[in-house]
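Final report, closing paragraph on structural work. Over the funding period we assembled a curated collection of sequence-structure pairs, and we close with a single example.
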Amino acid sequence: MDAAAYQAFTTELTRRADADGRFRGLVALGSMAARDYLPDDFSDHDFFAVVEPEHAETLRQERGWLPRADDIALAFRETAHGVKVVYRDGHLLEFAVFTLEELSFARVNRYRVLLDRGGVAARLEEQSRMTTQEVQRTASDDAWLFGQWLTQVLVGLGRHARGEVLSGRARLDDAVRLFCLLLARHVPAPEASLLDGLDPLRRVERVYPATGGELARALEGDSPGLARALLRLAARELSHVPAFPRAGVAAVEARLQALHG
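Its predicted structure, as stored:
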């Protein structure tokens, strides 16, 4: 969906919500919020529909309030509040229908209030602050993150060598996520504000072009190659961190050499 079509969809969605007395607010999320970065041809529409309590369940089940409802190819209930919709042209909606009180279940970072009939902006500001505090409170220390990262690499290599290729790759994929968490924590970058505190893989290639590009290329290869890339990139980018596990990395490198040459 190009920029003009994307904006037209947002405008129509907002118009429909504003004309429907069951809605109390509409909140754009992620790229739809157009904060820090704009939606592109690959962006989905992510939003919260804030509705009156007596209409919440109906609006989770109905599709007629959405733009182009006749073009919907797939719609399903993802969570108690959340719905995913796919149109025939492949465009995706991910949204949740909340009452004002149910917004307390939401985790938000980037958002923009498109419609507010009272209390929505204030509640979202509170939830954004609480989300930030939760992320900071539950952030693991460096020793734990490095330990988890390195042992995921080690277990992934072992399972791959055993013939459990799928399970081994899943462990290495988690090691990629942990590496990106550590990268964001310890390697400053001019565009670091574009990173997503709720998903450490988002926009890594843009913020860290060289490292992100190398990692992306390694992900296209086999698991031993991905493990080598993770160990190499960690030594290059993160060895300055006091908790960097030098002896552990050396042990895993030796194991990799023994298993895969």
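The domain at 3-137 is CATH 3.30.460.10 (Beta Polymerase; domain 2). The first helix runs from residue 3 to 19. We thank the funder for supporting this effort.
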